[in-house]
Amino acid sequence: MFTPDLVDALDGSDALTKRRHAAADRAVATGMPSFTEEVWRYTPIDDLDAGLYAFGAPGGAAGPPGLMAGVDGDAAAVVHITNGAVVDVSVQADGVRVSTLGAGADDLIGTVAPEGPDVFGDWNLALTSAPVVVSIDPKAVLAAPIVVHVHTDVEGLTWFPRLVVMAGRTSQATVIEHHTGGESPALICPLTELSVADGAHLGHVTVQELGGAAWQIANLCSDVGRDANLRIGHVAMGGAYARARIGTDMTGRGGHSEIDAVYFGRDNSTLDFRTFQTHVAPHTTSDLLFKGAVDDHARAVYTGLIRIEADASQVVANQTNRNLKLSPNAWAESVPNLEIENNDVQCSHASSIGPVDADQRFYLESRGVPTDVAEALVVRGFFDEVLDALPSEQISASVRQRIDELVSDAYFAVAVR
């Protein structure tokens, strides 16, 4: 599918080209994954047909607003990346800078992830054609979000979006990463790096609404400094197979991270999530809440790991995954894990998979609510906790409305409002 000789056709400094070749060599040595490996268990990765895709960066027009309608107007900065090329960059606020290849991005790529967490991460470093670095100045406080739109609409294209976010000391900002696509088959392998300096507060939201034939294999890597705060939100609504590997490294004493996700699988889609809450420093905390629903023949996979290193005392870490099955043909898998090397910690994990709660449905039915409407109301309320936790109220409202529409379709009921 990918070969190291593709590296030489890409732009970038000599130092970046050298790192690209090293990454390509690692990827070739690793080889393509198989579902027999634990980290790819329960996935259709063996169905990935290399012959369907060709690497390129043809560019194109900006994608549709989708769930982001109305967000760009007040944004601190807006970036459009389409089919492997940066097509537009607009910065409206002080305290934020956007860099591309040859304009400051080359040396910052790999700040958090110098090597890919998997083979697709290494290929991302080797073949990213339009990396973008967002730098937030120390002490800057951005009231409006930074928005990065990533769009794919070329049939059979494969490409590797790369976003690096550098949040300076004691800065405050929110970055929204929006992935859209047409209905043609494509393979998109993004990698996002979040560097949260000491005392900084960073929110990052990924909104994924790809077409039904697209494959996405995404990685997010983050480093949280001393007394820093990182809030990650993930929304997954599309794709034939959409995988998100989300990792938070708590390397600074007193750091805190929150990871929240909402997902809704339909038709024959597979939504796959792998999370890693790694506590390196003492007195750090992390909380994770993933909630999703699967309808039709859709599948959802969640595997999470809380790892506490030996020197990370007085850590508090929590992990929760809840899944609703709206169809007898839908399927979900949830596997939480703990690896603890220090005794002075508080950790919890929980998961559940099942249909709509019968007691909640009966409560509404006993008050005259029809069964279909009662179930739709329960599903809507199921998502409220995680939607309220997303780092963007505007995105929360848009996603809540989309879920209302999906739930109404699922139950053949009037729209829930």
Question: Roughly what fraction of the amino acids lie in strands?
Answer: 35-45%
Order of helices and strands: HEEEEHEEEEEEEEEEEEEEEEEEHHH
Low-confidence stretches: 413-417
Helix content: 10-25%
Morphology? globular
Estimate the mean pLDDT confidence. Answer: 95
Number of strands: 22
User: How does the helix and strand content classify structurally?
Assistant: alpha/beta
Oligomer: single chain
| Gyration radius over CA | 21 Å
SSE blueprint and pairings:
Layout lengths: L13 H17 L23 E2 L21 E6 L2 E7 L4 E4 L19 H9 L4 E5 L9 E7 L4 E3 L2 E6 L4 E10 L4 E3 L2 E6 L4 E9 L4 E11 L4 E8 L4 E10 L5 E10 L4 E10 L5 E10 L4 E10 L6 E11 L5 E10 L4 E10 L3 H8 L5 H19 L3 H19 L6
Parallel strand pairs: 1-7, 2-6, 5-8, 6-9, 7-10, 8-11, 9-12, 10-13, 11-13, 12-14, 13-15, 14-16, 15-17, 16-18, 17-19, 18-20, 19-21, 20-22
Antiparallel strand pairs: 2-3, 4-5
